[in-house]
Design a protein that fits this description.
- The structure is a homodimer.
- The first copy, chain A, is α+β, with helices and mostly antiparallel strands.
- Chain A folds into two domains: 5-209 and 325-412, Aminopeptidase (3-Layer(aba) Sandwich), CATH 3.40.630; 211-323, 2-Layer Sandwich (Alpha-Beta Plaits).
- Chain A has helices at 5-19, 32-45, 90-106, 133-139, 144-148, 158-163, 195-199, 237-253, 290-310, 330-344, 357-363, 389-412; strands spanning 20-21, 24-25, 51-54, 60-64, 68-76, 113-119, 182-190, 203-209, 211-220, 224-225, 259-268, 274-275, 278-287, 314-323, 326-327, 349-352, 368-373.
- The longest helix of chain A has 24 residues, at 389-412.
- The first copy, chain A, starts with a helix and ends with a helix.
- At the A-B interface, strand 10, helix 8, strand 11, strand 12 and strand 13 of A face strand 10, helix 8, strand 11, strand 12 and strand 13 of B.
Chain lengths: 414, 414
Amino acid sequence: MPADAQLAIDLLKELRALTSDEHGAQRVAWTPMWLKARAWFQQKLNTLPIQHHLDAAGNSWTTLRGESPRTLILGSHLDSVPNGGWLDGALGVVAAFTVITRISAEFHGRPPITIRLVDWADEEGARFGRSLFGSSAFAGTQSIEQDRGRTDAAGTRMEDAVAACGVSIEAIGEARRERQEAAAYLELHIEQGPVLEKLGLPLGVVLGTKGVERHAITFNGQEAHSGSTPMKTRRDALAAAAKLALAVRPIAMQHPDAVSTVGSLKTYPGIVTAVVGRCEVALDQRDLDPAILGSMYAEAQEKSRQFAEEEGCTVEWSRIWNIAPVPFHPELIQLCEQAINETAGQSHRLPSGPLHDAAEVSRAGIPTVMMFVQSLRGISHNRIEDTREDHLRLAVDAFDRLASKTIAWIAARP
Amino acid sequence: MPADAQLAIDLLKELRALTSDEHGAQRVAWTPMWLKARAWFQQKLNTLPIQHHLDAAGNSWTTLRGESPRTLILGSHLDSVPNGGWLDGALGVVAAFTVITRISAEFHGRPPITIRLVDWADEEGARFGRSLFGSSAFAGTQSIEQDRGRTDAAGTRMEDAVAACGVSIEAIGEARRERQEAAAYLELHIEQGPVLEKLGLPLGVVLGTKGVERHAITFNGQEAHSGSTPMKTRRDALAAAAKLALAVRPIAMQHPDAVSTVGSLKTYPGIVTAVVGRCEVALDQRDLDPAILGSMYAEAQEKSRQFAEEEGCTVEWSRIWNIAPVPFHPELIQLCEQAINETAGQSHRLPSGPLHDAAEVSRAGIPTVMMFVQSLRGISHNRIEDTREDHLRLAVDAFDRLASKTIAWIAARP
């Protein structure tokens, strides 16, 4: 008997009714609404023969002990962005619940290996600007010193907000203890992009999460009067920035999955009567291949210097953030593809542009794969985020099959 | 005996000491510092055999009656932007003072025609966003209804601020009475641009003020996730706007004196993780030839539609403001050129990109010309605004010659 896909959909709707308003989901981590979502979910879990605890970083662990301590972890996150969608994160957690329920029933509460469900703490980083909080603590890639200083828009310290939820910022590194015996990690998530919809496919296997190079680029020219400064004597910082905003696109389009985005461009003084003296650009480049990502970054830098020179400007780069690409496990990718083919008839391999907790788990050396289900219009982080219900059912079915295949794979490994 | 150029420089320095702080000139119209500057200037004028009055719009008129009521007007403005320079406006007023002093002495207080000095009220529009206030009231081009509703950054109504300086907003149209008997208007001003400095020339004759087409252009695309949205499916509003910001430049450069500026570009949501869904651009196009200005505007519109289509966006235009080009009087242009050639050996003809009170006077049908003196580095509206003192002396000498030539020209007209 497979996992109960209709139950997953019903639970998602129940959660939406409980934790959304007219603007969308409001399960922002470290807020009362998030705690309410977690308490609701715990009630559902308590029907199973499980053990439950929060780890040192606030990740919520539910353990179904098996014959072997070797562990398959299934998970995602219940937290949302403000005004978020009903599926981002919650789908993966609820699907994992139906799968662990199915496994528990099938093996009468004692599967051959241990199965754990994790609800990661603060995947979105919506309140304090620190995404993947819980999974990075698990992976040992977090910095307590950096996180300690964070504040939200109201000035509340992250340290105090997590303490109110029972987490001591000093101790979050102890979450890495949860890695013991972890043999594989599986996560189901909505795609949050348009690729599967364009292909007319419900499901895809995720090859890994793209690496990110994120930089602030400042062009300095010369502020000058719009009326009295001849075109040929201008040092227009916007012109250099506009050239760069356009040039980063063909740089990315040389590669099939690369993306490159100027999401913010600011002009100073920013008045219609003055040539732009300073222009600040925020650039985000992503690819799954570190060599491609590196060459894209280098090409953009070279172009920026060329454009600065052409426009009589100077240019400075400042790294905002970066992360290396995280490829998922090749054998689990194959298992995921098989599960999708058996369920939906056809699969598609794609990298993930957005980051996910699965990337942190994979960085910790645990074999990992993700499955994507189609997002309507590719829209996420918005109350209109949606997925067809028949696709959600296929997703739960395929994820359930993937879990079974992975249990067998773990059991067969030395 | 020519006008006393050294006196003009000394007075400008005295005014600077009286009305500037470490950030520059602070003679913003309708403020106590502006009234202080005007009171100081009135003291200087009172040494002459003149009549003085404020007109209904707050313009300050000083009249040296001549044999004939036909009148030559000399003027500029004492008001400045906040943190302004020492010469913008003040040079023209002070030079006019030395010229009227010279004429009064030469003709023993009774020149052949009437000479008037005008200090226009609120040329800059720095406080209420309404430039050329007094001269447009004189010219009859102002709108009381529009001006009534204006407020400054602190919420003070323009109507109340001008009333505190003795001006009733209802009555400003009566300033047009000052046009009676006006036979010509002359204004000396710093260039506020780099053209004369690049040519190595101290002085130039102004052909007129460029017309301006000023528009807000909004591109609407589709906000989308920077990581998950493939390059080919994007509808990037910034890309369309960047193309336009670059395209308006060659459109202007087809014409020798045209300028075209995107001074402000705003991205929404303006975050590094989202493709820009909406982009707002402010475009300012200027030329002295109305046909050229019209074709530049039409070309920019056409390009914007092309770029919107290429990027899967829509585009909307909204006029912020426009004004037709104002050519100066051809015979006065010739007289001005002669005066410059006689004083400095070489002249140059150039249009003015910035607007000036002279444009309003010319629109009222009064023969008008302006003389420009070189601005160091082309910089104005800034405390570092400056002009070489030998150039200031040449400017006063040439302007004095121009006044004499214009008196003769008026006397010779039927």
